[in-house]
Amino acid sequence: MALSTSKEQISIAVGHIADASSMDAVCKTLQAIHGHAYGFAATSWQGETGLAAQPGRRRYYFIMDATDARVSLAPGHRVRGIPPGGPYQPLEEPQWAEATAAVQEALWPGDVLCVDSAQPLNVSGKATCFLVESEATAYPSPAVAFLRHLGDRPGGCAAYPGAFRREALPPVRALADAPNKRGVNRVNEHTLDMRVDRDPRPQPHYHGPVTVGDGEMVNHSETALVLPRAVYGLPPVDEPESGRVVIYPQADSDPTHTQVIPVRPGSIVVTPATVDGIAGHRFENAFAMLLAIPGFVSPHNAIR
What we know:
Blueprint: E1 2-3, E2 12-16, H1 20-34, E3 39-46, E4 49-51, E5 57-73, E6 78-80, E7 88-90, E8 96-99, E9 103-106, E10 112-116, E11 121-135, E12 144-145, E13 165-169, E14 188-194, E15 205-206, E16 210-213, E17 216-218, E18 220-226, E19 244-248, E20 259-262, E21 267-274, E22 277-278, E23 280-284, E24 286-293, E25 301-302
Parallel strand pairs: 6-12
Antiparallel strand pairs: 1-2, 2-21, 3-11, 4-11, 5-9, 5-10, 5-11, 6-8, 7-8, 10-12, 13-14, 14-24, 15-23, 15-25, 16-17, 18-21, 18-24, 19-20, 19-23, 21-22
């Protein structure tokens, strides 16, 4: 479904990974925001499956549901979030390693697979994913980011002490004086437990389009992919049925105007920021992957 009002003409796409018609609306909205440099789909696999991408393209599989799902890694595959006890050589960058022998690893909701023409992957079991395809750049994508093996970095919408906030695909930031703020980023993602029973609570904010130089800008979006909190043994929220996203459709002009969107595991909500209109958001009792396109490279603007 899409929520909109005639006043600001900003459509907020809302879907569920198991509902084909709503996912069609989500994908069409993201396509309209970002154009044909990107592709979007709800996808799944069952049984032995090969994942690949065309030359010059990269595919990101954000896993939302998994049953006995596994990925086969070959020597040279790089991972972010190092599985303990496996054939991995840690790299200089913290939380990164390279496989030194063939190995299979379990996949959980919240894990991310990154595939390009030089880095195909074989998977098995059963999984449901949100797929984003972009051009391949020099961004250092891992073959797999294992969410359960990443460290926490509280901040943003989960800044309380001890917060579950893990960066699967962190941004590569441009120099402060660089005219191109996007740089090599095309897709970034972090996962966090956003709660109203902790201090500080999530704060309303928005991001604008991203400057890429010579006066040109590209649209920005932040998409929440809601996960089951119990998979990671996270404490339940005080109101288990109260998960929601508060949308500010006129974030930069009318902070009093809001829309409340209930969410549950499998829900997907798109917050757009285009040259024609900017929406903001606040997350309440939502455990979600936050997917940013072209990345977390747009300034954070508080809504007051």
